[in-house]
Amino acid sequence: MESPQSFVEEINITEIEFYEVVGKGAFGVVSRGKWRDKDVAVKNIETESERKAFITELKQLSRVSHPNIVKLYGACTQHPVCLVMEYAEGGSLYNVLHGTQYQPQYTAAHAMSWALQCARGVEYLHGMSPKALIHRDLKPPNLLLIMGGTVLKICDFGTACDIQTHMTNNKGSAAWMAPEVFEGSNYSEKCDVFSWGIILWEVITRRKPFDEIGGPAFRIMWAVHQGKRPPLIKNLPKPLELLMTRSWSSNPVERPSMTEIVRIMSHLFQFFEGAEKPLSYKENHDHSDASKIF
Q: Can you tell which superkingdom this protein's organism belongs to (predicted)?
């Protein structure tokens, strides 16, 4: 098998100027840095067990090129081991939705745009050849924002797998995870569609999915296994509600493909204006009922 290093540029660690730590991914610590006059995110591998996820992410990211997927510039494969990627100055979508520091205002157009951009990135992954890629851990912490919050990029490919692998080990995060993944059944790319449906609900309501359940992750998994889903949203246009509920159907076969989601979302998105406006960080606004954005 070809080694993953052959796909990507080998970067000399001494060329990178490191700044502050900005987060932690599925593996490793992520720092902001400068490399050849570019702002970069550098993901450092800390333990031997993280090497496996590193090799996966390196292999998968080196295959992809799409405006809604984080760009990989290269890697340091000698000690210390790290990935060098584009830096997303807007942080994660999760922090924009639920962060404690800033609470930017956003509109229904922004919510629709984020969901559509996420769907486009995943559609690209699912359409890859010779083997489709399943992300398996789609959730707002793995969706990064740039350009004032208007452009979304999917990141964290440490759990991605080739579609043929049909892995049954339990990857991902409980609130966004399709039931067939944690039930240990064989699963397909439709597990990403389930996660997308939950994300759509989350960007519209600005609430954390299944937050009311609390406790350990298995309580959410048990509820989802029994058919529990986030509550329906008041005043949500019917075509959007139907797309959302089909996406999180218990039966993967009933879920739409990402191509169908992109087609429907692109059509609906025409009716929303202002998605290109940067997010507003005004003080003292109330978004306690985010469903009012529709």
A: Eukaryota
CATH of the domain at 276: 1.10.510.10
- pLDDT digit string, tens, across residues 142-192: 999 999 999 999 988 766 675 544 434 445 589 999 999 988 888 899 999
Q: Is 18 helix (H, G, I), strand (E, B) or coil?
A: strand
pLDDT in tens, 189-203: 999 999 999 999 999
| 80 plus 196 within the same structural domain | no
Q: What one-character DSSP code corresponds to residue 150? A: T
Same domain, 80 and 144: no
Number of domains in the chain: 2
Domain membership of residue 43 as a residue range: 4-86
137 in catalytic set: yes
Residues 82 and 141 in one domain: no
Q: Specify the pTM.
A: 0.88
Binding residues for ATP: 43
**Ranges assigned E (strand) in 14-169:** 16-24, 29-35, 38-44, 72-76, 82-86, 133-134, 143-146, 151-154, 161-162
Q: Which of 294, 293, 264 has the alpha carbon at shortest distance from 105?
A: 293
